[in-house]
Amino acid sequence: MKLEHHPTVLELRRREKGTTPERISAAELREFALRAGADDAGVIGIDRPEIADQRDEILHAFPKTRALVSLVCRMHREPIRSPKRSIANLEFHQSTDHVNEVARTLVQLLETRGIRSLNPPSGFPMEMTEYPGKIWVVSHKPVAVAAGMGQMGIHRNVIHPRFGNFILLGTVLVAAEIDEEQQGRAIDFNPCLGCKLCVAACPVGAIKPDGQFDPSACLTHNYREFMGGFLDFSNHARGKHDASGDADRWADTETASMWQSLSFGANYKAAYCLAVCPAGEEVISPYLDNPKEFRDATLRPLVEKTETIYVVPQSDAETYVQRRFPHKRIQRVPGVRPRTIAGFLRGMSIVFQSGKSAGLDAVYHFQFHGAETAEATVTIRNQRITIESGLIGTPTIRIVADAQTWIGFLRKERSIVWAMIRRKVRVTGSLRWLLAFGKCFPS
After folding, report:
1. Which helix (H) or strand (E) element contains residue 67?
2. Can you tell me the distance from the alpha carbon of 353 to that of 351, in angstroms, rounded to the nearest whole number?
3. How far apart are CA 70 and CA 115, in angstroms?
4. Which CATH architecture does the domain made up of 341-439 adopt?
5. Which keywords accompany this UniProt record (predicted)?
6. CA 144, 147, 148: angle at the middle one, nearest 5?
7. DSSP letter string over 163-210?
8. Closest CA relative to residue 182, chosen from 25, 415, 358
9. 419 in Cβ contact with 411 (< 8 Å)
């Protein structure tokens, strides 16, 4: 029998002739999502400007994507507020599993309609082969905001107008067109109350009172057991770290916690910003009734808790913990170290330490050659960093470097002095500007 005459092929051809829909209404997509178990859902098209920066990556994962369904699933508030991490993390893990099951059910429902779709994970596991670069397939938060599921609070979590920030998000990529006028739209107000309880609760000072955010500090501590923690642990076990001070480097509690992360699921070390947030129609009443009582019940147990805080040495987070939480134990761990020049340039804005840049006003020209070629202008001024492609303006200092040598220096595998002697790194301008630059990016 020829392949084109096979019953399976004939049935497939029959379906392709007219039964596979090329369009679906946003209302029907949302109804499918609610039927699958979501507490709320919104729909946007792939060409929405709010997600333009991740469009190519989405299409790389699922080239037929034409629409995205943002899924919102509620979490129970009291477990998240508990200072006992086992209780809070059980809720995180089970809620994440629920979001993934909702997404999977939605994909199944769409499949019965002949519509192809894909459900990237709500959280971990992620594409760890890309670590420390972008390890997620789709950024759920911008999709949710664009679809009208809430707005980003000062703590960088999406706050749903009803459920507050006690939600987890998922996204399903759909291979069907939707009408422009049917798409979700961002809500016209921010449910964030500006109370800054999240600022007070954050153990590493990642959430700034002026609205700025230090992603490196959050990543180093809260996601300790998801990513860099076990890498650091295994390197230490294999003797790749300096042996000095080994006796107190790993406490029994840390080893037990790491084993739990391997046998059950990685534990968030904080997420306190979610715990104390009073925003949302179903959450706000106790805060309005008695703000002090609310703070005493939710904020104080977290602030007063004795715990280990993970920080990059000489980072803003280390300074913050020493000043704000002297009763908490500091554990210094390696920061994120890039593997490529592209990763270095992309990650600078994430690991930049604004506090260490106080008083610095300089323009850096970088030129890389060898295994990777790139030119970039980095401006540090008013404790802000700007990274631009190409060489722009007059530099305060110019650095010309072999790409592999520079990455080796950043990863502390090679000496900058050795590199300069060998002419692998050449600097035009005072070295004090390079030293000041390095202080802004401790690792």
Report:
1. strand 67-74
2. 6
3. 17
4. 2-Layer Sandwich (3.30)
5. Iron, Iron-sulfur, Metal-binding
6. 90
7. TBT-EEEEEEEESSB--GGGS----SS-------HHHHH-TT--B-TT
8. 25
9. no
Domain definitions of the chain by residue range = 3-182, 197-332, 341-439
Question: Could you tell me the maximum CA-CA distance found in the chain, to the nearest angstrom?
Answer: 79
CA-CA distances (angstroms) from residue 201 to 161, 283, 332, 427? 22, 18, 20, 43
Q: Could you tell me whether strands 308-311 and 167-174 are parallel, antiparallel, or unpaired per DSSP bridges? A: unpaired
The two three-digit tokens of residue 384, written as one number: 């802000």
Tell me how far the alpha carbon of residue 401 is from its chain's centroid.
30
In 10 A of CB 165, how many CB atoms?
27
Segment 191-220 mean pLDDT: 95
**CATH number at 3-182:** 3.40.109
Q: Find residue 73's DSSP bridge partners.
A: 168
Q: In b/e form, how buried is each residue of 170-205, taking b as 16+ CB within 10 angstroms?
A: bbbbbbbebeeebbbebbeebbbbebbbbbbbbbbb
**Is pLDDT at 143 greater than 50 in this prediction?**
yes
Tokens 């309005």 correspond to 288
Q: What size, in residues, is the chain?
A: 443
Amino acid present at 21: P
- Round to whole Å and give the CA distance between 111 and 118: 10
DSSP string, 128-169: GGGTTS---SS-HHHHHHHTTS-EE-TTSSEEBTTTBT-EEE
pLDDT at 339: 87
User: CA 318 to CA 311: how far, in whole Å?
Assistant: 6
CA distance 268 to 85: 8
For residue 428, list its beta bridge partners: 398
What number of other Cβ atoms are within 10 A of residue 12's Cβ?
A: 11
| pTM for this prediction | 0.84
* Whole-angstrom distance, CA of residue 435 vs CA of residue 441: 10
pLDDT of residue 7: 80
238-290 tens-digit pLDDT: 675 544 444 456 666 776 677 667 767 888 899 999 999 999 999 999 999 99
In angstroms, the Cα distances linking 195 to 89, 150, 277, 316, 340 are 25, 17, 8, 23, 40
pLDDT of residue 244: 44
Inter-CA distances, 137 with 60, 67, 130, Å: 9, 15, 11
Dihedral, CA of residue 322, residue 323, residue 327 and residue 331, to nearest 10? -20
Whether the Cβ atoms of residue 389 and residue 376 lie closer than 8 Å to each other = yes
